[in-house]
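Batch manifest, entry 17 of 40.
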Amino acid sequence: MRIGVDLGGTKIEAIALNAAGEARARRRVATPAGDYAATIEAVATLVEALENEFGERGTIGIGTPGSESPRTGLLRNSNSTVLNGKPLRADLERRLHREIRMANDANCFTLSEAIDGAAAGAHVVFGVILGTGVGGGIALRGRVVEGRNGIAGEWGHNPLPWPRMTEYPGPQCYCGKRGCIETYLCGPALARAYESLSGHAATPQEIVAATPRNLVAAGVVADYRDRLARSLAHVVNLVDPDVIVLGGGLSNAVALYDSLAEEVGRYAFTDTFATTITKNAHGDASGVRGAAWLWD
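Output type: structure tokens
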């Protein structure tokens, strides 16, 4: 039995997969806000509940925001800041009395979609998270590429490509820099752009749903799609993936896919653009499934 855990800022989810990759059970609890020790205990409790339910001891993979420093073994770059600077893997191994495998949550999403999802069978896959934050991951032949510094795929903290005059120097990012892709493509950024132009607050989902009848919403979404295309073109120029899979809450916005491939192709350094850009297959289960597949 493979057990995967998705350690998010608002929820912790665990899944048990059988040998064929079929889900036997999924469980989730709220993430203890600002409490590291309680977070460790919540993860362990979920794992133990699944093992008790099936009477089996499982392998454990953990998907986390941020990444583990190869130098110190401490978590870093997490927007769940209570985890930063903590020996998360070591503390979980101590609590669960076994080896665990851990990867960035975007890497887990990408792995899931590369193994048996929307990009199954593809040679090179780039996975994109468009939600409260912006993440990315790379899978090569069904295996995650973490990189020498453990940050492969972190496109969200590169500067927005080819910025317009009105986009420079860009919003302040939690990473300490300005103008990061994440500050333009996260869900809250879309909501802020709409409110600044319309004077009305709305969720990203409401904004996208309003595009057929709301000119302000349509313009904001078009600007968002152009920024997404510019940002993905940089990924294409560097990685040239076979498939780009979109995940996160904004991946459900049908309007984002309208002409997106054509727009990316116009920015990419190529005379022909054959990369497939598609929505994920496993929805909000992709990350937790990918964590379980870390033991493939």
